[in-house]
Write a structure and sequence with these properties.
Keywords: Calcium, Membrane, Metal-binding, Repeat, Transmembrane, Transmembrane helix. The chain is α+β, with helices and mostly antiparallel strands. Helices cover 26% and strands 29% of the residues.
Amino acid sequence: MSSEPCEFFDENFQDPLENFVSTASTAVPIEISQASDIKNLTNGIGSPQEVMTVGPEAQIPAACQRYLLNVNLKQGRNLVIRDKRSGTSDPYVKFKLEGKQFYKSKVVYKNLNPRWNESFSHPLRDREHVVDVRVYDKNRTADDFMGSSSISLKNLELYKTYEMELRLDDPKSKEDDMGVIIVEVCLMFRDRWPQRKNKVWILISHLLLNNQLKNQMWTGVLGITLVEGQDLPQYGQGDIYVRFRLGDQKYKSKNLCIQANPQWREQFDFNQFEDNQEPLQVELFSKRGRKGEESWGMFEVDLSRLPLNERQFYTHVLDPGKGKLVFLVTLRPCWGVSISDIETAPLTKPDERDMVSLRNSHKCVGDVGFLQVNVMKANDLPATDLNGKSNPLCVVELGNCKLQTHTVYKTVNPEWNKAFTFPIKDIHDVVELTVLDENGDKASNVLGKVAIPLLTVQNGQPICLFLKKEDLGSTSKGTITLVLEVIYNKVRAGIRTFQPKETKLTEENLKFSKKVLARNIYRVRKISTAVLYTLQYIKSCFQWESTQRSLIAFLIFIVTVWHWELFMLPLFLLLLIGWNYFQLTTGRASSNQDLVSDDDSLLFSIYPYRSESGKKGLMDKIHMVQEVVLAVQNVLEELANIGERTKNIFNWSVPFLSCLSCLVMFVSAALLYFIPLRYIVLIWGVNKFTKKLRNPYTIDNNEILDFLKRVPSDVQKVQYSALRAPTTP
C-alpha cells in the first residue's frame, strides 16, 4: 500500500471502466483472486483499497462509514502450548470491535509458529476505536484461550501501512511470554469518491464476493483405504481405532478389539482444496473403559507431491513397541464443483450434459452425474434478535460435500439467487439444505432444514418447501424456494448401487433417547406382527381351519414342488413387485401407508419414575446400563431398517430401485434357467475363495445389504417428504 495520499477525482476525468461496466452483462466472467488484481483493474481511478472489503459485509461506501480499516494477518511466533499431549496448539485469531467479532481466521493445526497470510477490510464510522485481537486453540469441545492484544486506531496516519508485533497477554495466566502476532494495518478514507463511480465498486465487490465463495470449492479427492495394523501390542482388553484429519475434515474408523493384526478394510474420501497445503494427520488410539483413551502414535503424510490417479502404499511405524499401520492413498481430480449466479449456472451448457451421457459410461464408472441447486430465497424465517430480524445463510450438503451462500443481514426474507453444482457419487444420496442464523463468534442457530432425495427431484421446476426442524421430524417456521436439476447416467448409477455406501465423515455423538427407543420398538413390533401373521396363516393352512383354503394351498404346493426350478423364485418376486405396481397405478394401495412419524403419541412409558438424586458411587453402573440400552436401541433400529427397506422395495417407494430390482430379478431368472445351479454355486465359491488372492487389499461387502442401504426406511421417508407451500407470484 502506498503511503501517498490520493487526489480527488476530476469531474471531467474519463473513467476507463465505463465501457467495462456498461458491457458487464455480455462480457466474459472475470475472476479476481488477489487484491493486486483490483489495483490493476482500477489503475487510473484512484486508490483501490476502498473496494477491498470481501465477504458478506461488502457493500456500497456510505457517508456514515467514513474510514476503511485494511488488515493483513501475517503470522504468529512462539505461541503457547495448549495441547499438552502433542506439545503444540491449533491456533486461530478473532478480531473484535466493540465486543462484536468482524473477522475470524482459518485454523493452522499443530503449529506454534503459524502463517496465515490473510487480508481483509472493515468499514469504520470514526477513528476512536480499539481493535481487540484474540488468539484461541481449536478443540473438539471448548476452545482454549491463548492470549490477546489490541490495536489503537486514533493515532494511525491515513494511507500509511504499519507493521505491528502484537505481544499476547492473559492476566489470568501465569505464563510470562505468550508469543506475538504480526499484522499489517492501514487506515484510509472510504467516502471520498464520487457517487457516479458506485457502479464500479458494486461490480468489483460482487466479483470479490464470488471469489470468496469459490474458495469453498475443492479441486481433488483423496481416496483413503485403511487396510490393517501390524505387530500391535496385545496386552489388556479394550478397543483400537484410527483417526484421520485433513484440515477441518475428520474420519474415525470402526472400533476393533485389541489384537496383533487388526483388519479394518475401510475406504473413505477427503476433499482436497487448492489453497490447503496441510498434511494428512493419522493417529491410532486405544480405548479401555469410559475415559481410558491412549494415543499409540501420530504421524503426518505430505500430500503436496502426491501424483494423480496413482495409488500410494504407506506403512508407518507408530510409537516404540506399538507396531505399524498400513493404508493406501489415491489423489483423483474432481470435476463438477461450482458456485455461480443463477443466470450463469453451468448445467445449462450442452457440453456439461454430454459428460454424463450413456456413451461415456465406460470412461469413469465412479462418477454418476451432476446436481445443480438454485437457492433462490426464503420467506418468513424466525427472528433471532430484538428487532425481529435474522442474519440468514443457507448451507447445501450432498454426502460429505458442503457449500454455502453468503449471509444476508438483518432480514427474515433473504434472497440469495446462487447456483451450486455438485458431482454425484451416489444417485441415492440426499441433498440437505440448512438455513442458519449467523451469530458472530458464537455457534450459528438452525432456523430450518429440508432434505430432498435425488431420485425425487423434478428437474427445472421451482418448488417452495416448508422448513423443518433440525432433526427433520416436524415443521418449523418459514419456507425456502429452490430449483433443482439432476443429470445422471443410469448405467453408472445402477453399478454404484451395488457398491459400498459412502460413510459420513461427521461423527455423531450417540446418546440414549427414550423417544428413539420407543419408536424403534414400535417399528420392530409392526414388522414382527406382519411376519407372525404370515406364519399363522400358513399354519392355518396345515391345520385345515378352512377346507377351501387348505385344499387350494395343498394343490399349489404339489404343483410347485413337482415342477420347481430356481428361476421361479426371482420370477415369483418379480410378479409380486409387478402386482404391487398394478395396485399403485390403480389407486388401490399407497407406498406411503403405515409410515412411522415422530408423533409424541408413540412415546409410551418404558421406565418407571426415577428420582434425579442419586449417589455418586452409582455413576459407573448407570453408565454401563446406558451403554447396554444404547446397544439394544441400535440393534432394534437396524432390524427395523432391514424390514422396512425390504418392504419399500416391493411397494415402489423408490421407483428407480424397484425398476432396478425388477431388472436384477429378471436377469437372475434367465441365468438360473439356462445355467444349472451347481455351476453357479461353483463360480460363486471360487470367486469368494480367490478374491483375497487376486486383490490383497480388497474390501469385503455384501451386495444385498449395500443395495438395501439405498432404500429409505419409513422414518427416512417421513423426513424426506416434501411439504409444498403455495407458490406466490
